[in-house]
Design a protein that fits this description.
With 167 residues, the protein is mainly beta. The chain has one helix and nine strands, in the order H-E-E-E-E-E-E-E-E-E.
Length: 167
Amino acid sequence: MNRSFTRAGALGAATIAAVTFAATAPAAAADNGKSYDFTLYAKEVPAAGGEETGAPPKVGDVFTFAEDLYRTKGGEKVGRDGVTCAVVRGSAQQIDVNCVGTFVLSGGPGGQLTGQTLTTFDLSEEQPASFDVAITGGTGDFKEARGYVRTSPDGDYERLEFHVTTR
């Protein structure tokens, strides 16, 4: 599996530039919950054994990856993520990948966010297109979290725009 494909599943990434984690102030939501909007940058942690290359992924292939999360590119580390993806549909041109992962964040707000996505990747593209990850839950400051994370390639990083509400 090539690096751009494994990064494509990032929840942490998978995964946008104007707002930073440190500058985010929660706003009161209509149901007395809180709203958090912030951007982080994810950089993949190299896996033992190096990168896989070869044939395109096929249905049933599973891969995992981990990333460190930063306030800015190369800046302060504020968390990490772990993701597992499975190829669920494929052709010579594209594949559908179902990914589940967890973001662990510190530095206020803090806690864990879980996410899931089913997204299509064009195998002919060097970089994957942007895609959204549904937030399915959380802990700590993110208890009962809902929302989404927009992940986009950004050089050697994935840019992750978090849009989170809690109840």
